[in-house]
Amino acid sequence: LKEENASLRSKINKLQIFSETQADKMRKLEKKLEENKIKEEKEAQDLEAMVQHVEQNLQLMTKRAVKAENSATKLKQENALLQVQLKNYKTENEALKSGQSASLAAVKQNADLALRNLLKVITNSRSSIKQLVSGAESLQLVADLLKSIDRVSEMSEDGQ
User: Fold this and answer.
1) Using DSSP, how many helices (H) and how many strands (E) does the chain show?
2) For every one of its 160 residues, what pLDDT tens digit does the chain have, with 9 covering 90 and above?
3) Measuring CA to CA, which residue among 87, 68, 84 is closest to residue 125?
4) What family does the database annotate (predicted)?
5) Is the CB of residue 151 less than 8 Å from the CB of residue 77?
6) What is the chain's alpha carbon radius of gyration, rounded to the nearest angstrom?
């Protein structure tokens, strides 16, 4: 009976040691789990901040693209008006050449002025069109970035 008692005490001691070891492991795992939760929350907040920043940039670029489109439209209208003026000046120039009224120098001066204005409008139109294309490329880059953020978010959710 004493031997059996000693054997049972030995087993109890071993089980207590094993239980304490398991409890330590459990505490360590709980601590690690808590650390991982905190880390994931921080990563989620960082990702949210980045998404908000990208959205703000996207809105800004959209506004700039709309402004460039409006400017390009206005310049196209101005260009069309100047082309009509140029045509009128050319017609007037032809009329003067055929002997009608007004001096040739005035017509040439008007045509030169119209040509300078036309060239100026064309130059401005090209600049606006370049800005519009650049804005569209920027919007495409932001769209690609948002797609990649969605993929990262999906991969993060799958990894949990």
Assistant:
1) 2, 0
2) 899 999 999 999 999 999 999 999 999 999 999 999 999 999 999 999 999 998 999 899 989 989 988 988 898 899 898 888 889 888 887 876 766 555 666 767 888 888 888 888 888 888 888 888 888 888 888 888 888 877 776 666 666 5
3) 68
4) Belongs to the ENTR1 family.
5) no
6) 39
Distance of CA 22 to the CA centre of its chain: 51
Residue written as tokens 């008006």? Answer: 81
Residue with tokens 């009509």: 84
Q: How many residues does the chain have?
A: 160
- pTM of the predicted model as reported, rounded to 2 decimal places: 0.41
Q: What is the three-class DSSP state of 6?
A: helix
Structure token digits, residue 107? 């017509």
Record the tokens describing residue 67, joined without a space.
Answer: 């402004």
